[in-house]
Amino acid sequence: MPLKAELHCHIEGAAAPDLVIRQAQKYGKDTSPYIQNGSFVWHDFTSFLAAYDFSADLFRTEEDYARLADHYLTSLARDGAIYSEVFTSPDHATKAGLSPKAYTDALGEGMLRAKAKTGIEGRMIVTGVRHVGVESIERAARFAARCGHPLVAGFGVAGDERMGDMEDYVRAFEIAREAGLGITIHAGELTGWETVAAALDHIRPSRIGHGVRAIENPDLVRRIADEGVVLECCPGSNIALKVFDSFADHPFPALRAAGCKVTLNSDDPPYFWTSLKREYDIAAQHFAMNEKALASVTRTAIEAAFVDRKTKATLLARLNGATR
Ligand code: ADE
Ligand code: ZN
């Protein structure tokens, strides 16, 4: 089994249907509009977000979040992952009744529990949500910058790309950058290559969430390769959301062949019937990637990780030891 590393997974989106059902029973909520036959129900990005927001709202206490992070990172480790960055969302926590600090501390506690059991190293990327608005994104950036949690390593923006402009987020990212946080932003998933170009122009991230629709513009693909910007690719998510029709149409191999730094990620695994392990299996099956190529994807992810140099060296040594 190849060693794996994940850079792009929304922690609320990692809650499996059976866990969400248990949470709903705890809080007296009916899951039937959103979960049927053990599977999340949605038909487009908007209805996906509705199911996601409903489920996120069922995680309300510190222990709920600690258990969620522990579950997810432990399952990742069992699938061969040695490193995990998860997106956190203070907005979702606040809506569910928990302060951003209590939420972050609880997720951190869950990550440490998983590390104690399995050795998996975890970090958090605080995110703002585009469709909630610029003000809340800046609030999230300020929180990320001042929270001081040792596992908070980055700042990002997710949510509905069809709303807002990259220019709107410049100030939030300046706050995060000033605080020494790693920078990533979702672009080129639901909207075309232009949002990826705008992200590079205005936000200057070292990584882009998805970014796959850069493939629509060869000059932009060249720029991504030349600048060494890392793409957090999530093929299973893209096919589920119909960004591309099939894995045969997915640009992962073309981006890689063009010299772009690409990684494999699960995004919101149970919503898209995937897992990090399945993403590596997809790459093996549909993108003709052998063990060596998959190990190089893991290496790219660790090199791009928002983690201190010493931990990065330890992770790379683990990877090199396994692939030697
Ligand atoms: N939030 C959770 N999943 C997302 C996705 N795939 N794209 C944008 N925002 C998200
Ligand atoms: Zn995402």
SSE arrangement:
Layout: E1 4-6, H1 17-26, E2 35-36, E3 39-40, H2 45-56, H3 62-78, E4 81-88, H4 90-96, H5 100-118, E5 121-129, H6 134-147, E6 152-158, H7 170-178, E7 182-187, H8 193-202, E8 207-210, H9 218-227, E9 230-233, H10 235-240, H11 252-257, E10 261-264, H12 276-286, H13 291-303, H14 309-323
Parallel strand pairs: 1-4, 4-5, 5-6, 6-7, 7-8, 8-9, 9-10
Antiparallel strand pairs: 2-3
Helix pairs in contact: 3-5, 4-5, 6-7, 13-14
The structure holds adenine (ADE) and zinc ion.
Model description:
The longest helix has 19 residues. The protein is 49% helix and 15% strand. The radius of gyration is 18 Å and the shape is globular. The protein has one domain: TIM Barrel. The strands form two sheets. It has an eight-stranded parallel β-sheet with strand order 1-4-5-6-7-8-9-10. A two-stranded antiparallel ribbon has the order 2-3. The chain is built from 14 helices and ten strands. It is α/β, with parallel strands linked by helices and 324 residues long. The chain starts with a strand and ends with a helix. Helix 9 links the parallel strand 8 and strand 9.
Q: How much helix, percentage-wise, in residues?
A: 40-55%
Cα separation of the termini: 14 Å
Question: What is the correct CATH architecture?
Answer: Alpha-Beta Barrel
Q: Radius of gyration from the CA trace? A: 18 Å
Give the mean pLDDT: 97
For the secondary structure, the number of strands is 10
Q: Which regions have little confidence, pLDDT < 50, spanning 5+ residues?
A: none
Question: What summary fits the major beta sheet?
Answer: 8 strands, parallel
- Side by side, the strands of the main sheet go 1-4-5-6-7-8-9-10
Order of helices and strands: EHEEHHEHHEHEHEHEHEHHEHHH
Name the beta content range.
Answer: 15-25%
| CATH class value | Alpha Beta
Structural classification: alpha/beta
Total number of helices: 14
The CATH H-level superfamily is Metal-dependent hydrolases
Please state the overall shape, judged from the principal axes of the Cα atoms: globular
What ligands does this structure carry? adenine, zinc ion
What's the structural domain tally? 1
